[in-house]
Structure formats: C-alpha cells, structure tokens
C-alpha cells in the first residue's frame, strides 16, 4: 500500500511489466480477434468495477498484466504474416534494408537488417523479419542502404555451454531470429538513404564529430574513450580498456546515458539561471532544456540508451517546469511506461534500462537519507561526501543486477568515482565546447589540447585503480531467485533503518536467514560435486575435471592464453560451480597427441591431432575425438568403446563420417557441435 501511495502508477506498470516478462519466457501466438476481444472485455470489466475501489484494485493487476503480455506478443515479428523463417532454403536471394548503423568487426562488418522480400520462383515475395548479416569487410555499408544479397540465413543458436551468455534470447528481445554471411560477389547495392532521415542525420553528424575529435586526440585508446564518453560510440574500445573501466567501477561513463544527459540538463539549467528573464518564463526554460537534451541525443546517434535517458529527463522537465506539485517517483514510472508503450515492451528486458532506472530510483530514495547523516561546512569535504553518497546509493540499487549479469563487483568504486565523475563532467563539457568552436583556430586548439589531457588523466586514474590489488571481486554467480532475495533484503534494511519499524527488522532477519540457508545448501552441494565437461569451442578443445571445490581445465596453450575465449566458453560454468580459474581451478596445457584420464572409475581417451599408431584391444568408457588426422576403422572395431564424444573442433563432414562408423559398430555418439557441451555429473 505504501508503494501505491508513493507511486500511483505502480499499480499499472508493475503488473504490466510482469506480463511482458511472462511473454518473454512463454511467448504464445494469439490471434488478433482474440486479443481485441480480451482487451475490450477487460476494459468493460474495469469500467463496471470503477466505483468499487478495493475490487477494482485487485482486478486491475491481472488486467494490466494481460495488457503487457498482449502488447509484447503483438511485437514478436515471427508471429506476423509471412515470417521470413517459413520461406528459407539453403541459399536465398533477399531484398534487405540496413536499419541500424553498421559495426566494424575484426574480419567483417556487422549490420542489423530488415528482410523486405525473398525471391521465390523468379518473383519477389514480401516477408517480415529481421536478421544479423555479416558482410565482407571490404564493402562500404551505410544506414538506410537497400541491398540485394544471396546468403544462407541460419536460425540463431542458443548457448552451447552451461552458464554461457544466451545470445539467442538477447536477440529475441530485439526481434532478430536469424543470421548469415554475405561475400562481395553476393551483394549489390540498390539504393541509399532509405532509412529514417532523423536517424540518418544523427549517425552522419556523429561520424563527422568523431573525425573532429581525431584531429586533437589521435592516440587510438584515448580517442576511443573520448568518442565513447562524449558521443556514445563504443566500437573502438578495446577489451583491455573495457576491462579496466569495469574493474574501476567506471564503465557507466563510457555508455552515454542518464549521467551524460543529466550533465547536459544541469549545464543548461545553470546557464539559464544567469539570465533570470529566460529562467522565469517556464515555457521558454522548458523548451530550451528539452531542445538541449534532444540535440545532444541526436549528436550521439540516437542510440537506445540515449533515447531512454532523454525520455526520462523529458518527463522530469515537464513535471518540474510546468507543474509545481509533482511526485518524482510517479514521473519516473510514467517515463518508463511511455518507453515501453512507444519504443517496445521488450525494452524492459534490456540490462541498460534496468540499471538506469534502478540507479535513478536508488539515488532519489537513498542519497538524501545517507547525506543527512553528516553536516559538513567545508565545501570540498561536503562535495566529497555528496559524491560518495550518490555512488553508494547507485551501487546499492544496481549491485544485485551486476552480480546477476556481470558476475563481478568493483571494490574501489567509491575511490574511483571521486575522480571519474568530475572527469566525465569536464570531458563532456570541454568536448562539446571544442566541437562547437573547433573552427576557431587558436581558441579551438587550446580547448582541444585541454580535452586531450583531460581524457589522458581519466585513463591514467582508471588504470591506476585497475592495477590496485583486488580491484575487482570476480566470479560472483547468483540465480534470479537470489537476485530478488537480495533486493528484498536491501529494501527491508532501508525500511528498517529509515522508517525505524520493528516489523521491518523481523522481515530483514527472516530474509537474511533464508539467504544464508540457501548459501549453506549451495556450498554443501558444491563441496561434493564431481563433473567432467567437454566444452563446445570451435577453435581448440577444452575439457574440465571438477572434484569438489577444485578442478582442472585442459586445453591448448593458445586457448588458455586467450582470456576472452575462456570468459565466453568456460568461466561462467566454473562460476556457477563456485570455482575460479587461477585459484580453485588450475590450467593444464595439452598437445596434439592422445591423453588418457581416469574420472569416477571411468577411463577417458582424448584423441587430438595426427597419430601414427592408435591403441588396440583396450576398453574405454568415453573417447573424446578432436580435430585431427585420419582414424582407422580398426580403432573402433578392436577397442571396446561405450561412447564417442565428438568435440566441436571437428568439421561437419568429419563428424558425419565418424558418426557413421560408430553407428556401424554400435557405439553411442554425442556430437558437441550439435547438442552442446557434454557434461557428466556424478549423482
């Protein structure tokens, strides 16, 4: 009841979001007449019960949940007429339009496209659907291009390894279900400039502004940081830079969002206060604030995070400038509702939106309470205290999601933010001033020089914090249930200390007991676990043996030296099992040969690479076969083999041939490339 009084819109938006989440996990194609009928019946029911407030409030919850589900279901492209997935063959000629700015990758150009038509029987058939297309990196692509391509579109695969990031689910929320590759000879440009003209101008403007930044910040790493912080372009950031900023708890300054748009808002607000004539006229002040916010959004390419932040502040501007009596919580809820209705209900599944709104709510709710603990006269110390309160408030609100999605916590976030937030303010304001006056040779050059050293100082501070011992707590793994439990604990703790209610302390104690009990049960299970895993990796074989709270990962030197590959394929599984590479898990290098292992009374043979001879007349429970040379048929006939595990480094043709031989000899086959990682756990 307190939540409803504080945020009246919560009775609408919370069940609405619940309906969207339900559709995300259990999508069902509902016909349009049934959907319309359900909506009309629900509206009629609410209109009948509107005078019975208690009953109305109860019925409104499932009704708004239904609205959320139906809106989300109606946005799923594969439920539309003529979905592209129903028309695909081995090779198809497609008419596509590039609907987002292309991104340059290591060996290709990645573009999100809308498939407009497909060639069937020498005629064009209209279809609906979106796809990710990887073009040859020698091609020149632009937003709004219409192109005729020939490719094989494949359905996006789900995660092949336990705990791995679910890219298929991520793209599902963006209504993308297929991907393909296009070579130079299979592509032809039909027309340019077909996209949204505002979006096209935003992308063009950002590219030109990035070229201006390059003139004063030629160094690649520093230019990448400046481009990300000022203009929201993150493609040039290296994995090392991203890792350093994440370890320092400063990654939020590289993603143009609420912090950056908020700085623009504050700067314009301060400038308007210098001119009281403009500031007193609410409509003019509001217009200038909104004009500044959305102009900056256009300069940064109108990315999803910028649009979200600008929309949120637009509602705040309308509420504060045009209405004195406003509830900031209700205003924030209204902006979220607007984003879900206009830009798509599945936006709520984006990590960025969840973190942005939680951070804002945390700062609004917690920061004033924390700040009231100390009254400091010294302006510098007061500023340090205020920044610290803001940082702690935002971290309290977002840390559980950070554990769930990123599995880490920056231990020195409080220290780094004391330097990072002022640096971000300086770099953003100096950068925009430079971009505005760069044509003035002397003054523009001086401002550009100042910008260069500001970015260099920020990079120095971040790397300094990153190099501190134990700068990041990595390998945290919690479930969705644990995430909710932690949020309930934080909410109970805040309510207990802020409202000083005895009942809240009882709730807090009970939740802590449940959480600690959950952890004890989980740790006990992990201490007795025994697993053997063959991971699905295309480049190199990777095997793991886990025994209780320790284990080994066996792979090639190149794979074990590639942190990005290990993070993507292996680490998430180890974290789920309470293990961490370099501490509880050691690394073992394997060479192209055969290795024999014993695990849980099972004999495991790993064949990798070329061999002159093969074992004969032996018994193997499992034979793991990686990419390598020819394996004679005698190996399968002379040895007693219970199961063959075809590792993902094998080509499709080799796997097919080995499967046929195994079937002829009544040997069970497990193909990792098709079925995902092989995981054996002793029960």
From TrEMBL:
Superkingdom of origin: Bacteria
Record's bilayer topology term: Multi-pass membrane protein
Coiled-coil positions: none
Any one Gene Ontology cellular component term annotated for this protein: plasma membrane
Location of this chain's protein in the cell: Cell membrane
Main location: membrane
Protein name stated in the entry: ComEC/Rec2 family competence protein
Domain ComEC/Rec2-related protein as annotated: residue spans: 229-496
Residue ranges of domain DUF4131 in the record: 36-183
InterPro entries: ComEC_N (IPR004477), Competence_DNA_uptake (IPR052159), DUF4131 (IPR025405)
UniProt keyword annotations, A-Z: Cell membrane, Membrane, Transmembrane, Transmembrane helix
Organism in which the protein naturally occurs: Salibacter halophilus
Segments crossing the lipid bilayer: 12-27, 33-49, 56-72, 244-268, 289-322, 328-348, 355-376, 382-406, 418-451, 471-497, 504-521
